Amino acid sequence: METAEFLEALQTEGRLLAAAAEEAGTDAKVPTCPGWQVRDLLRHTGAVHRWAAAYVAEQITERRPLVEPTDLDGAELIAWYRDSHRRLVGTLAGASPGVECFTFLPAPSPLAFWARRQAHETAVHRVDAESARGGSPTGVTAEFATDGIDELLRGFHARSRSRVRTPEPRVLRVRAQDTGAVWTVRLSPEPPVTTRDASGAAECELSGPAEELYLALWNRAPLPNATGDRSLAALWREASAI
């Protein structure tokens, strides 16, 4: 996907998130994030938006701490979130393609990284807001979902922070049935190594439509289908939280 497509998704997802949060109310519990209420979700996501925008706007090259507000609530908090989202979209849309700043996953450019990361960050937390409101979540395209799976498996879980590990080498496969995308996740005592292919035998396969897999792998929905050694599916559930 292109940066412009991620920016379009980011714009849509942020608006949906704010609308769902407003409908639910800031006191509402967030079923997909146990222990959170909508106020926690808005404070976190709005802070992430401002944190990300600052890297690009100020061309900051070193990681800075994320600071979440603790005193905003109700209508004021919802308005603050909407402003945070607008600032982020405006900053990314107006940035030079060659802007240099901090990133934390591989990407063609810092701008491409932040547009992609914030689009998926917002989409996942929009699902959280909609879970607090109730009703079916808004869908995403299979292409967007496939990209999100790729970012999660080959980006986040390639880092040393990943806790998805096994004492002995094991192989997990993930297959998006509607797009044909396949990932092979090699587990060991080290961080997972994921390739975009179906090479070799796998002990467990997680499969389903890309959108369902996207939400399931982010632990926002049940796994669509698991065949083989289901202990690897259970391991994902237990250890994959970012």
Automatic annotation (TrEMBL):
GO terms for cellular component: plasma membrane. Residues 143-234 form the MDMPI C-terminal domain. It comes from the Bacteria. Residues 8-129 form the Mycothiol-dependent maleylpyruvate isomerase metal-binding domain. GO terms for molecular function: metal ion binding. InterPro entries: DinB/YfiT-like, Maleyloyr_isom, MDMPI_C-term_domain, MDMPI_metal-binding. NCBIfam families: maleylpyruvate isomerase family mycothiol-dependent enzyme (TIGR03083). This is Uncharacterized protein (TIGR03083 family). It comes from Streptomyces paradoxus.
